[in-house]
Amino acid sequence: MANDVQRICAELRSSIFSSGFAADWLQINGQKITLTLPFAAKSGAEALIASEPRLQEYDWDIRLNITALPAKEGKAPQGSAFPNIKNIIAVASGKGGVGKSAVTLSLAKALQAEGARVGILDGDIYGPSLPTMFGNQGEQLTFTPNRKMLPVNVFGIEGNSLGYLVDASAAAIWRGPMASRAVEQLFFDTQWAKLDYLLVDLPPGTGDIQLTLSQNFPLTAAIVVTTPQNIALADAQKGIAMFQKVDVPVIGLIENMSYFECTSCGHQEAIFGSQGGSNLAAKHHVPLLGKWPLTTALRESLDAGKPLQVRNPNHLLNAIMSESAQQMAANAWELITADIG
Ligand SMILES: Nc1ncnc2c1ncn2[C@@H]1O[C@H](COP(=O)(O)OP(=O)(O)OP(=O)(O)O)[C@@H](O)[C@H]1O
Q1: Residue 99: CB within 6 Å of ligand 1?
Q2: Is 295 exposed, middle or buried (0-12, 13-18, 19+ CB in 10 A)?
Q3: What residue segments make up the domains of the chain, in order of their start?
Q4: Of 52, 118, 186, 292, which is the most exposed, with the fewest CB atoms less than 10 Å away?
Q5: How far, in Å, from the CA of 217 to the mean position of ligand 1?
Q6: CATH number of 78-340
Q7: pTM of whole model > 0.90?
């Protein structure tokens, strides 16, 4: 019977588990099966099991035991330098305004909904948006006796941002080394709780500041956000090239603002063009994690200081965001373990 389940699991293929379940994730005890996943994709596993009648005959217990993946070459693995943080994933965009911060918060909330412990470092010096999206502008950070910053915790997500520390107009005059040092300090001098994933919302662009941060942070991996518009794609390409240059694996591309769906008639309009993200992903062999529509409800919820999942839990975009997040987590595990294996 055990072999049967393992065989069925190994046969399963889906958008989330492209290489199927590994046999050692399963513990089979009569009718009871415990599945322990090394990345945050619990609901994807549940959906797979629900789609396979033979698997539904068993009593499933799905757990997460997220692997601490090694940081890029030359940097200490998270295990030693940051024992509290298992995976640090940069979220980058070449062009500004493509929705990088909106994507960061949405992915963070989606990972947390899978049962992962998640944090966000808002490294966008010139336009820190975490306090707005968390709805806690004006909140003051507290410090430990040894002057470490304690992150804020909103909706179960830890976060830190220069927006809690300095006036945006003060940060606007920072350039080059001063700007990257400020973000580095924010990262290194925060006392993060135990996290499975820390998402780093990088400043938009691919200049010296972004390059320095990508080199100096012990990043596990990176994702790039773009719109399908040519000008954004050209910049996203520079983002992919930047991470390749510093040996940080790019585990996915998100095409945001892919289309607008009319809420009255359902017509889909590709305002910024179509297929741009898919073509870019294919060209650079980077997985496309999803195409997110331009959605009034997402903009409204972030302006109101809440993730869409909290303000509008039944919105269809939540499922798209969840799939992207799970695929990102699975890709990080799969690509990096394949690389070191
Ligand atoms: N899919 C979407 N649908 C509707 N509004 C969106 C979507 N994605 C982002 N937005 C909105 O677009 C605006 C810009 O998004 P955001 O601040 O996340 O971009 P960014 O790339 O982080 O910008 P920056 O250049 O400041 O780093 C915000 O008001 C955000 O709420």
Answers
A1: yes
A2: buried
A3: 2-64, 78-340
A4: 52
A5: 24
A6: 3.40.50.300
A7: yes
